Amino acid sequence: MTELTVTPLKIVICFVIALLTTIMVRFALKDKRDLWFKRSRSNFILTVRGAIGEYLALGYPKTWQGGLILILLMAVLCLEFYLVLRWF
């Protein structure tokens, strides 16, 4: 049986890792993001993003390539979280 311990420090580390991973994916996609993902803009006061948030947000997959990128991104994030919770 594996022991996964969750502490406030590990939560912060997981958050930072997730942020850096998604930023790297966003920069790796470059112009393909507009082909593979559909971005939505919300005008509701609680969900409005700034300029940086709009630039970094991937959006919703609209092609199979976008769906594959999303699945791979989620798998990588889960693996990173597992490694942090297990061995850090």
Determine the number of helices (DSSP H or I, runs of at least 4 residues).
4
> Total strand count, please?
2
Q: What is the percentage of strand-forming residues? A: under 5%
- Cα-based radius of gyration, to the nearest Å: 15 Å
Main beta-sheet annotation: 2 strands, antiparallel
Assembly type of the chains comes to: single chain
Please tell me the overall pLDDT: 88
Sequence-ordered SSE layout with sheet pairings:
Blueprint: H1 8-29, H2 32-36, E1 37-38, H3 51-56, E2 60-61, H4 64-87
Antiparallel strand pairs: 1-2
Describe what this molecule looks like in 3D:
65% of the residues lie in helices and 5% in strands. The protein has helices at 8-29, 32-36, 51-56, 64-87; strands spanning 37-38, 60-61. The radius of gyration is 15 Å and the shape is globular. A two-stranded antiparallel ribbon has the order 1-2. The model has no long low-confidence stretch (mean pLDDT 88). The chain is mainly α and 88 residues long.
Summarize the structure.
With 88 residues, the chain is mostly helical. It has 4 helices and 2 strands, in the order ααβαβα.
Write a concise keyword list for the protein shown above.
88 residues; mainly alpha; two-stranded antiparallel sheet; 2 strands
